[in-house]
Give the backbone structure.
Amino acid sequence: MAVGGFTTTGGGGHYEAKITPIVIISCIMAATGGLMFGYDIGISGGVTSMPHFLRKFFPAVYRKTQEGENNSNYCKYDNQGLQLFTSSLYLAALVATFFASHTTRKLGRKHTMLLAGIFFVIGSILNAAAMNFAMLVLGRILLGCGVGFGNQAVPLFLSEIAPTKIRGALNILFQLNTTIGILCANLINYGTSKIDGQAGWRISLGLAGIPALMLTVGSLIVTETPNSLIERGRLDEGKAALQRIRGTENVGPEFEDIVEASRLSAEVKHPFRNLLLPKNRPQLALALLMQFFQQFTGINAIMFYAPVLFSTLGFGGDASLYSAVITGAVNVLATCVSIYSVDRAGRRVLLLEAGVQMIVSQLLIAIILGLKLKDHDDDGMSSGWAIIVVILICIFVAAFAWSWGPLGWLIPSEIFPLETRSAGQSVAVCSNMVFTFVIAQAFLSMLCHLKYAIFVFFSAWIIVMSIFVVFLVPETKNVPIEEMTERVWKQHWFWKQYMN
């Protein structure tokens, strides 16, 4: 039974579609991949600020954090091994995404999500049971394989199964679950930090297995996308799946468009090489630059290391974890704003408004830190100024959460034609992992050397990316996914030159 309905203009007439329970359930189950991803982003920062974890795996950092041994407020956690603990996940995800591109095409979106869940379960077990640094990093690498497979398959699944009119909102479920995962991780870290001994950090790392199991079970339940079934030659199953998820027998125009796109896709023997053709350069350039700019907003530097960052700013251990919980909650609420507005206001409006908000908040943070946080002051900032910094970070996080966070995944997942969609998503995920790895590996060292100016560094990049949006990011709101070429790229003042 459908809970709503509408029609959208398609290449062959009208795409009739109802918002069916199977669409909602499938999207929610698939989006647990975001929960898995978010939990792992949030958990590492809290764990790396726990004394028992540092004493076991990073004794040099532990000694620096003890009273009387801090050379600089900005350099307490500057350690390449500690950064490798966080960044190794993203390096593994970078490699895994190329294998995920193959499985997404050959096995389907559903089975690729299943593989992601399995990798995550094993990685969580290894991390929770880690006895040495090598075992710890191996667990993170397996988690990275889960991220690579999950981030490849889930956004594609969501874009292909969702009706055009609400594609943006349903796709952002992935990002919403990511923010919920971060918030859950911050809450768990706050609780486990009270547990004496090693049990605290082991529980934090081990609980990553819960969202992993949710994705694993969910991938067994969800319906495979019609696009994937048709792409693999299973036309009857594809049409039946399309009728189920659209809640109507009248799927002829949409089915014919998918079949035609699949026929063109089958003619492409080397999809990665095909990405370099002139007609695919706009999509490729946009996918790469969206990932670059998303990471160079500085958001993951804050989300990875939130407790560490707040500790650096002079907060006590409990206060730093509590502040991380606050930013995590803001992240979740602001993502809900994006779900409501992305298919109403459009993609460009959200990106541009958030750019201004992020620039102002980061520059104010830099000014306050420059004036109020002295390099060798053991007491850090006064509580009043520290609260202002938390508020400004929340303003920054909110802006990111309703713009570059979800749209950095949504836009690349909806702009590629079917013949290069899997390869294009693979490149997007891979480039995201490259830039995430760079930021994760470099942030604590950058904080040590640039000090408060690190926020000026990131705000300068936000200015650049806002200019990029003004001139080069087209609006994709309410455009059927198979009609992007005709209705978006061929109409854009700059990108149309590549479409002939």
